[in-house]
Each structure stands twice: as C-alpha cells, then as structure tokens.
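Revision sheet: structure tokens.
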Amino acid sequence: MEKVSNYAVQREQWRQRFLAMDQEALCRKLPELEAAGDQLRLWHFGKQFAVGRTDGVIRCLTDDGAVNYNETMNIYTLFHYCVPGTRLTGNWLPFRDLRHASPFAAAFQRGIVQPLAETFSGHEDLLPGAAEKLRGVGLGANGYQLPAFACIPMRLYFWDGDDEFAAQANLLFDESAVDFIHVESIVTIASEGIRQLADAAGLPLGGKAF
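Predicted:
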C-alpha cells in the first residue's frame, strides 16, 4: 500500500474543513475574498489564488507553479481562525509581543529573522525589487510593507552590516494579526514571505531557515 505523507493528510483534512464552512459568512468575515463564480479568490504575497467552492482545491491564478504546503495552510487557516469583526488596529508589534507568541519567539528569531538578515547581507540593493515583485511598498530607507494577505500585512526592516556589525532585520505585524489567524500560522506566513523574497531576489535563503 502506498504511504501517504502527513502533509497530504493535513491538506485533505483542511480541504474538508473548508467544504464544511458557511462560505457566505466567510466572505463577510474576510472582505478581501472575491466571489467569482465557483471560486473564492484572494491574494497572498503577490500571487492570486482561487479556492474551488465545490471541491475546496486551491489553485494559483498568477503562474503555473504548484501551490506549496505553506501557501495552502496559510489560506485554509486564515479562513478557519478569522474572528468576525476583526479589523487592522495600526499598532505594529514584533512577533514576540503578539498575544500568545512568546513561546515561539526564540524559534521565530532563529528560524526567520536571522535567515532573512543573512540572505540580504551585502545584497541590500536587491530588496526593493524583490519587495515590489511581492506587491510590497517601501517605508522609508529601511522598511517595506508586504501584503501577506490584505488583512495581515507584514512590515520588514533591514539594516545591512559593515566591518563591525552583522546585518540585522526585523518583522512587525499589526496587533490584530492573531485575531485573523492562529499565532503559529503567523510563523508559517513569515517563513513563506522570506522564502519568496529570497526567490524574487535570486538569492539562496541564508541561515537555518524553517
């Protein structure tokens, strides 16, 4: 008997959860969702995805590549965990200060923030173009805002290194992020974001990334 991967099992479980959802209520919770015939469409890090309303399958509309596991889980968990009435607050926090994030803060720093800094160390000039490919916008000299989802923007700050100091980076999220999605899923979102940034810049992902 062919062995089924845990990833495939989880994809299927979450597909079934989506099919059991009240899709009209889901659209009211997430105004960024566009109902287009038999699809619900939304953007995630510069790519448009469609979720089949009758089969629950997620497809990418902006390129021919397969939808990876992180993209799949980010979309399904956004649908599942979003609290009705949640809105952006304008209060930006580092991951460690988000509600319930502290147990994961050290791993987030080690597996996401540090690899991001190492990836663009000596390549700061590639960040603006990479951010633009992800539909990001600049925030002054050192910052960029990336639309992980319209409801979960992610702010990235990067300072290149010199002879005395290593390159440094930071990621900020709106305080409301943990009301749109589970805090552990924010780790997956950030992981996908830095991977796509590195790909857009044509760089290998540095450090010991997740």
